[in-house]
Amino acid sequence: MESKLSSCSSFSLHHLLTPLPQEQSSSTMATQFLILTLLIFYTTLTFTTARDTNTGFVGSPDPKALGLKEKLSFSHFRFYFHERFAGSNPTSVFVVPPVPKYNSSTLFGAVGFMDTALTVGPEPTSKVVGRIEGLVAGTSQREFILLVVLNFVLTEGKYNGSTITVLGRNRVTQNIREIPVIGGTGVFRFATGYAETNTIFLDPKTRSTIEYNIYVSHYC
């Protein structure tokens, strides 16, 4: 193919560079100049593309080799988790206190961590299907808003060992909050979607019950 392109390029250049008769119109000269310009552009683009793709560290993997299905699946998961803020075994703790003047309002500046069970129902005694691990931080001086970084670690059935990662803005005072799903592992590789969360019960001094509905598209 390279020889054909070379022959074609040589022929075209020779033809285009041959002196034109004086009687040839200016429009014909303009047309040939345009063709020459396009030919040079195409040749430059071809060499640039070949150079850029031959980097030595970029490839095109086979999706099947990665365990990916050809078509996307769409799944809806409903989980509950139950935070304990006090007692001998709390599941959510603040390790950095808020800026003093925001201590009783927005919790601006506070940083906390959580590790608690995921259940299929709002009752603490309902079946456990995983854990939620992550961190939260107070990020607003005006409202009670948290930055949340959460990993939903599943332990049930074909999802055992797989995770869904949620990261975004949680406006706690809003009834239903929407947070992006940014990825996952295991059967949730290349996952995208969003989560809706709402507070079922909250006592800031003792405990809370939170519901998460996660809508996610994934290949497995």
TrEMBL record:
<keyword id="KW-0472">Membrane</keyword>
<keyword id="KW-0052">Apoplast</keyword>
<comment type="function">
    <text>Dirigent proteins impart stereoselectivity on the phenoxy radical-coupling reaction, yielding optically active lignans from two molecules of coniferyl alcohol in the biosynthesis of lignans, flavonolignans, and alkaloids and thus plays a central role in plant secondary metabolism.</text>
</comment>
<comment type="subunit">
    <text>Homodimer.</text>
</comment>
<keyword id="KW-1133">Transmembrane helix</keyword>
<comment type="similarity">
    <text>Belongs to the plant dirigent protein family.</text>
</comment>
<dbReference type="InterPro" id="IPR004265">
    <property type="entry name" value="Dirigent"/>
</dbReference>
<dbReference type="Pfam" id="PF03018">
    <property type="entry name" value="Dirigent"/>
</dbReference>
<dbReference type="GO" id="GO:0009699">
    <property type="term" value="P:phenylpropanoid biosynthetic process"/>
</dbReference>
<feature type="transmembrane region" description="Helical">
    <location>
        <begin position="29"/>
        <end position="47"/>
    </location>
</feature>
<dbReference type="GO" id="GO:0048046">
    <property type="term" value="C:apoplast"/>
</dbReference>
<dbReference type="InterPro" id="IPR044859">
    <property type="entry name" value="Allene_oxi_cyc_Dirigent"/>
</dbReference>
<keyword id="KW-0812">Transmembrane</keyword>
<protein>
    <recommendedName>
        <fullName>Dirigent protein</fullName>
    </recommendedName>
</protein>
<keyword id="KW-0964">Secreted</keyword>
